[in-house]
Amino acid sequence: MTAFAEYVAARGTSLLRLAYLSCGSREEAEDVLQTALERAYRSWHRLRKDVDPEPYVRRIIVNTAINRARRRAVLRFIPMGTLPEVPVAGADAGVELRQVLADGLRLLPPRQRAVVVLRYWEDLTEAQTAETLGCAVGTVKSQTAKALAKLRGLIVMDEVPSDV
Questions:
Q1: How many other C-beta atoms are found inside a 10 Å radius of the C-beta of residue 66?
Q2: How far is it, in rounded angstroms, from Cα 132 to Cα 55?
């Protein structure tokens, strides 16, 4: 399927970014993207040639990330042998703020994280986001409001550098 290969070659980096922002780690994003592309490939022949496959593939990525996050939530109850290391804050203020936001994104529930990523990183409209997630526009609006309120509550302004 040369059309599929061309699509992946042209959009692969963007799709990986979406997967990364949807799940928060590079390794997890690569797994999510690989799973999503496999699913897209299996049904590629059913897509009409005059329709952009991007919303379809985005939806697969977001749904895959949400499903994996749900499965991971069960594993959080299993105690760990050692605690994970705490990352050291970098010297660059922009990097610090980006890290604070990335950490905040990871703390959001999967559906809210998906809405924020699609709306603000992928720059989709509310209607496009609703179509991608298979929900109503009102749901996108409410999930966005809840997610932004939670992110604002997580970010302590004393910890954010003043020159940003």
A1: 19
A2: 6
Between 52-56, 67-71, 80-84, the lowest mean confidence (pLDDT) is in 80-84
Label residue 155 exposed, middle or buried (CB < 10 Å: 0-12, 13-18, 19+): middle
pTM for this predicted structure: 0.57
Predicted confidence at residue 69, as pLDDT, reads 82
Token reading at 124: 């989709």
Angle at 87 between CA 107 and CA 33, to 5 degrees: 55
CA pair distance 39, 106, nearest whole angstrom: 25
More confident residue, 162 or 28: 28
Q: Which two tokens stand for residue 47?
A: 């897509």
Positive or negative, the CA dihedral 107, 113, 119, 125 is negative
Q: What is the DSSP letter of 117?
A: I
